[in-house]
Amino acid sequence: MGEIPSHPAKMTLSLAGHNKDDRERRLAQIRQSLGARSIVLIGLMGAGKTAVGRRLAAWLDLPFTDADSEIEEAAGQTVTEIFAEHGETYFRDGERKVIARLLDGGPQVLATGGGAYMNPKTRAAIKARGISIWLKADLRVLLKRVARRDHRPLLAVGDPEAVMKKLMAERDPIYAEADITVESRDVPHDVIVGAVVDALVDALGLPTRSATTAGPRRKKVQ
Ligand code: S3P
Questions:
Q1: Residue pLDDT, tens place only, 149-173
Q2: Which uninterrupted H or E stretch holds 11?
Q3: Which pLDDT score, from 0 to 100, does residue 149 have?
Q4: In a domain, 29, yes or no
Q5: For the chain, N or C: smaller number of CB within 10 Å?
Q6: C-beta atoms surrounding 37 within 10 Å
């Protein structure tokens, strides 16, 4: 009987075309190249930031942090309670402060709430201390995913489809400033994680295969 693999889902991912040593080397190179920077997932509610982020962190053997959970812990209240009792402005202020603190704790994979990247100070902090990845999903996928849970105050008022369309129109041009964009399709999360790893290799200018067969380097994330 063979060895139990250290990462159960890896063989199903887009890295499956690489041998095990190649995969481990690529993941190690990403970790090394990050230094103290965080991988920061941004995008709309339902884009899969938490689910993909958790798996990505496991793959890279890095800590995973969820900004909304940290805000809830710091406030001693749920996001819904904060919105209801104090309003959105208060939440956004706390969100900015908590994310600034979390970015000091890299390297890590950090999932942010959908509105976090809209704040210019948060964007600048992420640019300085992280690599941003926009998980971009289409309206149908987002609505399907958010329908499963009801903990999002912005979707609790009005028609979720109309709210989501409005948020897409407002936010997509800003999300597009991210270092990396990965389509978050209606496929198992691990497939998206594989695409994120491939995109990181590319953006960090890492050799795509073994050093001897690597092609020309792409533009690096600064
Ligand atoms: C929000 C997204 C939520 C949460 C809050 C506001 C937004 O996080 O931060 O409800 O403005 O898009 P998720 O994107 O993790 O659902």
A1: 888 999 988 899 999 999 999 999 9
A2: none
A3: 80
A4: yes
A5: N
A6: 18
Cα 170 from Cα 157, distance rounded (Å): 18
Give me the domain span that covers residue 56: 19-203
Query: Which of the 8 DSSP states describes residue 213?
Result: T
Give CA 190 to chain center in angstroms: 13
Distance CA 102, CA 100 (A): 6
206 lines ligand 1 (CB under 6 A): no
3-state SS, residue 94: helix
Tokens of 161: 């489809």
Question: Each residue of 51-68: pLDDT tens digit?
Answer: 999 999 999 999 999 999
Indicate the burial class of 97 (C-beta count within 10 angstroms; 0-12, 13-18, 19 or more).
Answer: middle
pTM for the structure as a whole: 0.87
Ligand 1, residue 43: give the atom nearest the CA.
14
Q: Closest Cα to residue 132, out of 193, 203, 195?
A: 203
Whether the CB of 113 sits within 6 Å of ligand 1? yes
Q: With respect to residue 211, please indicate whether it lies within any of the assigned structural domains.
A: no
Evaluate whether residue 26 is within a structural domain: yes
- Report the distance separating Cα 200 and Cα 73, nearest Å: 30
Single-letter residue type at 92: R
Q: How many domains does the structure of the chain reveal?
A: 1
Strand partners, 39: 109, 131
